[in-house]
Amino acid sequence: MTPGVILDLDGTLLDSTRIWKEAGARYLASWGIAAPEGLGEALFPMGMREGAAYLKARFDLPENLPAIVRGITRTVEGFYAEEAALKPGARSFLAAMGRAGVPMALATASGRGPVTAALTRLNIEDAFAAVFICDEVGAGKASPAIYQAAAARLERKPEATWVFEDELTAIRTAAAAGFRTCAVFDAESAAQWPALRAAAEGAVTRLDAAVPFVLD
């Protein structure tokens, strides 16, 4: 039986992590406000509503919080629908898995709307048996629930399933739950790369480099 593959989206399959640091600046630009240096880093750890409150207070925005949240959401959705690109080697990796009959699923913290828009535009939606969303599963990636749900859909046990991630907590979660793990380099999490390489069974700087050991 072939192994299964579970892919993260942002920073693993798509070069999209940066939008979560750029969304605030892009939203401010729609008001003709230039974002100060370091705004993205300040907003990155915040939730959407907390970030909206921060922007409203700091820049004295005229909109109320729900309107600011909607504006930022539209900014993010527009990025996925129009700009988000595949990471290096991603398309050839997907093609190789398809030829080998390896079942694949996506596991992501992003919303279903932006995910669907990006997959459709990039013409890769048919590569995946299913797409799992953290909010829909009811747990983030500090819990193995999303990986377990994906593996069940692929009809594979954890030890026969590869999880590809660019974030340290996610790699550690998957490994602790018995999954095989591969770290994928992303410039936005470059500081974590040594720890990611140490925590994962495999580590690649581009996805197609993982083809040999997935199919071994």
From TrEMBL:
UniProt cross-references to SUPFAM superfamilies, sorted A to Z: HAD-like
Signal peptide as annotated in the record: none
Single Gene Ontology MF annotation: phosphatase activity
Keyword Membrane on entry: no
Organism domain of life: Bacteria
Keywords from the named record: Hydrolase
Matching Pfam families: Hydrolase
Transmembrane segments: none
Keyword Hydrolase assigned: yes
Name this protein carries in UniProt: HAD hydrolase, family IA, variant 3
Organism: Pseudoramibacter alactolyticus ATCC 23263
